[in-house]
Amino acid sequence: QKEVEQNSGPLSVPEGAIASLNCTYSDRGSQSFFWYRQYSGKSPELIMSIYSNGDKEDGRFTAQLNKASQYVSLLIRDSQPSDSATYLCAVNPAGKTSYDKVIFGPGTSLSVIP
Amino acid sequence: AAGVIQSPRHLIKEKRETATLKCYPIPRHDTVYWYQQGPGQDPQFLISFYEKMQSDKGSIPDRFSAQQFSDYHSELNMSSLELGDSALYFCASSSGRGQFFGPGTRLTVL
To answer: Under a CB-based contact definition with an 8 Å cutoff, are residues A34 and A49 in contact?
Structure first.
């Protein structure tokens, strides 16, 4: 079992719809969770971080964390074609020596259809 | 805002040659991470440095070494290059609020 799992996709949604991206992790002691967006051939871009259970909203993005279920998700409202990218879930493992060390999931490819 | 700087952006080498990749973190970031990303893969953690000391080691081959200097810039040294080393190499820096990635160096080994 991989430490961080995501559906590889591709996930296709029509423009203006809500895109829902899911991530599960195996390390129950994980404390910090991040979502990165990566366009093809470009570097990952940090778009959301979440540390406690519940929802965190930033513009069109909402991250949701449920530590009991070891589940973190990212909702993108009013999806735009420019949101088409690979979304990487990253989890800070327990027992880390660096506060920001993360394990990346395999990424979910999102395609927003105009 | 200042971002992570990596050089060179592109590098072409022959098998068995050596390569040096450089990373300049965001000012006041104390931690640097190196990743390797092959086509269609997620970034694979290689090594990290905190305050100029190695803090974590991932799947870094013995042929690779890295260090962080007094000005916090870091260098990844790769020797005896193999075809399989062709990939995007990212550097990221952080200060406790998540990692911020540089644009990457695309290494091609012929």
So the answer is: yes
- pLDDT tens sequence across B8-26: 999 999 999 999 999 999 9
CA pair distance B90, A13, nearest whole angstrom:
30
Phi, psi (rounded to 5 degrees) for A51? -125, -20
Closest-CA distance of chain A to residue B31, Å: 8
Q: Which residues of B touch A98 (CB under 8 A)?
A: 31, 33, 48, 50, 55-56, 94
Distance from the A7 Cα atom to the nearest Cα atom in chain B, whole angstroms: 13
- The predicted-structure confidence for A74-106, as pLDDT tens digits, reads as follows 999 999 999 999 999 999 887 665 567 889 999
* Nearest chain A alpha carbon to B89: A43
Distance of CA A73 to the CA centre of its chain: 6
Say if B45 is an interface residue toward chain A (CB within 8 Å). yes
Q: Which residues of B59-79 are buried (b: 16+ CB within 10 A; e: fewer)?
A: ebeeebebebeeebebebebe
Judging by DSSP bridges, how do beta strands B74-78 and B64-68 pair with one another? antiparallel
